[in-house]
């Protein structure tokens, strides 16, 4: 059954080029795809979520730095949520790395954040950086 919100309705008297091209099949597919929930898995390939694995020591400072920049409570930030989903753009990423350096003493380039897109992965990376294991 296709839910009523799954089919886009055309505006009354809309010209043909403004009418949505939606069939019942595409409406069903859009509804089904939007309901899929992704669960990050560990890099080792097992099916258990990363949240069940040991957390890096530097994960708390990473989350606190993100929260400081985004003016959020650290409890609202999931370690497995991407920085982009959290709202970090290029300017905020620079501010995030500066806040992280103040908090931990570890200096990293802002572009590194995009190579390790979640607080969990970024914290794991920081532990491999010289000076990251002593923080």
From TrEMBL:
Pfam families: PP-binding
Claim: Cell wall biogenesis/degradation is one of the keywords in the record: no
Entry keywords, A to Z: Phosphopantetheine, Phosphoprotein
Every Carrier domain range: 53-130
GO molecular function terms attached to this record: phosphopantetheine binding
Annotated PROSITE patterns: CARRIER (PS50075)
InterPro entries found in the cross-reference section: ACP-like_sf, PKS_PP-bd, PP-bd_ACP
Region (Disordered) location: 1-20
UniProt key word Lyase: no
Domain of life according to the entry: Bacteria
Record's protein name: Carrier domain-containing protein
